[in-house]
């Protein structure tokens, strides 16, 4: 069973971490609804917030006026914010109207926002009350998507963590794969696991509430996304056991992720090689095409998506890039340690953000490519730095073998664009 070799100089797991606790530039955690509502086909996400929250979701999702999406906003008006109306009563009425109009809803998430948290609206109490009223037809849960204290991928983490306590108990020996993936990517993953003879495989989130997703002391779980720290802890509290592994980005990361699961379930090295040999070769070939552009180029990560460490590992080891700084909102050894083991020594490792100080370091480093949030990209481009939007890496299929070339191409594209503009200016 093939496992990636550690870098000759050792990895970054024990490297000093620059802890930054200043001003942050992050996207709102409500954004996670945009991919979660597509994944959970019988769920509805009701944001309890302001008109600004509604506009954000409409813009981020690109919802057309005639569409009927599986999310919406219960608008907090001035009277609610001023304490002149009973927001709980109004919320009950909104939920009643919603459920009477949409009988297809089986799971309802009450999603907290900055306005609802500022006025201390107790959505957990509301979820308990409404769940009791509408059970068993509808399960009502709540979580916070507020941008006050969260990065945008933490919306998914909070949502999945809220689901864990209500999952049924099981004593069966099962694999649970955790993290929302596009359906086509999920199907590819399930095909690989099936080929290895691993099953039954359960999913969190599942596509609907009736899926047989349960958890118990014989559950082993693998995280497909690197931003699920709260969900990881919630599963551990239910007695499930984590399978630590690098995240499945690129050929190497996918192979290491699958190998860790295969070891847990006793798959032979011969069968592992038989199942993975062909897709590994395709992934290496696809990555090599983009690596021609990326090799030798320097790279700087602002903390944004919580995907930064595994992406830096992929880009340095498979694409030949040189990370100068790898910053991530949070670093959890249980989740990110395996990728840090494989990340070659050299880059600054930072946790958290002080945006002004980090901007100073980026300007001093002058990297060939800077990965950052939307709010920083245009100003840095104006200063002559090529940038890649971090949010695009969440909305684009990037996991496992068949997407490895597409992942590398996402980073090659802005460098090629900058090179083309330079040639055009020189003519």
Automatic annotation (TrEMBL):
<keyword id="KW-0602">Photosynthesis</keyword>
<feature type="binding site">
    <location>
        <position position="114"/>
    </location>
    <ligand>
        <name>[4Fe-4S] cluster</name>
    </ligand>
</feature>
<dbReference type="GO" id="GO:0019685">
    <property type="term" value="P:photosynthesis, dark reaction"/>
</dbReference>
<keyword id="KW-0560">Oxidoreductase</keyword>
<dbReference type="GO" id="GO:0016730">
    <property type="term" value="F:oxidoreductase activity, acting on iron-sulfur proteins as donors"/>
</dbReference>
<comment type="similarity">
    <text>Belongs to the BchN/ChlN family.</text>
</comment>
<dbReference type="GO" id="GO:0016636">
    <property type="term" value="F:oxidoreductase activity, acting on the CH-CH group of donors, iron-sulfur protein as acceptor"/>
</dbReference>
<dbReference type="GO" id="GO:0036070">
    <property type="term" value="P:light-independent bacteriochlorophyll biosynthetic process"/>
</dbReference>
<protein>
    <recommendedName>
        <fullName>Light-independent protochlorophyllide reductase subunit N</fullName>
        <ecNumber>1.3.7.7</ecNumber>
    </recommendedName>
</protein>
<feature type="binding site">
    <location>
        <position position="53"/>
    </location>
    <ligand>
        <name>[4Fe-4S] cluster</name>
    </ligand>
</feature>
<keyword id="KW-0149">Chlorophyll biosynthesis</keyword>
<keyword id="KW-0479">Metal-binding</keyword>
<keyword id="KW-0067">ATP-binding</keyword>
<comment type="pathway">
    <text>Porphyrin-containing compound metabolism; bacteriochlorophyll biosynthesis (light-independent).</text>
</comment>
<dbReference type="GO" id="GO:0051539">
    <property type="term" value="F:4 iron, 4 sulfur cluster binding"/>
</dbReference>
<comment type="subunit">
    <text>Protochlorophyllide reductase is composed of three subunits; BchL, BchN and BchB. Forms a heterotetramer of two BchB and two BchN subunits.</text>
</comment>
<dbReference type="InterPro" id="IPR050293">
    <property type="entry name" value="LIPOR_BchN/ChlN"/>
</dbReference>
<feature type="domain" description="Nitrogenase/oxidoreductase component 1">
    <location>
        <begin position="28"/>
        <end position="405"/>
    </location>
</feature>
<dbReference type="InterPro" id="IPR005970">
    <property type="entry name" value="Protochl_reductN"/>
</dbReference>
<keyword id="KW-0547">Nucleotide-binding</keyword>
<keyword id="KW-0411">Iron-sulfur</keyword>
<keyword id="KW-0004">4Fe-4S</keyword>
<keyword id="KW-0408">Iron</keyword>
<dbReference type="GO" id="GO:0005524">
    <property type="term" value="F:ATP binding"/>
</dbReference>
<dbReference type="InterPro" id="IPR000510">
    <property type="entry name" value="Nase/OxRdtase_comp1"/>
</dbReference>
<comment type="function">
    <text>Component of the dark-operative protochlorophyllide reductase (DPOR) that uses Mg-ATP and reduced ferredoxin to reduce ring D of protochlorophyllide (Pchlide) to form chlorophyllide a (Chlide). This reaction is light-independent. The NB-protein (BchN-BchB) is the catalytic component of the complex.</text>
</comment>
<dbReference type="GO" id="GO:0046872">
    <property type="term" value="F:metal ion binding"/>
</dbReference>
<keyword id="KW-0077">Bacteriochlorophyll biosynthesis</keyword>
<feature type="binding site">
    <location>
        <position position="28"/>
    </location>
    <ligand>
        <name>[4Fe-4S] cluster</name>
    </ligand>
</feature>
<dbReference type="Pfam" id="PF00148">
    <property type="entry name" value="Oxidored_nitro"/>
</dbReference>
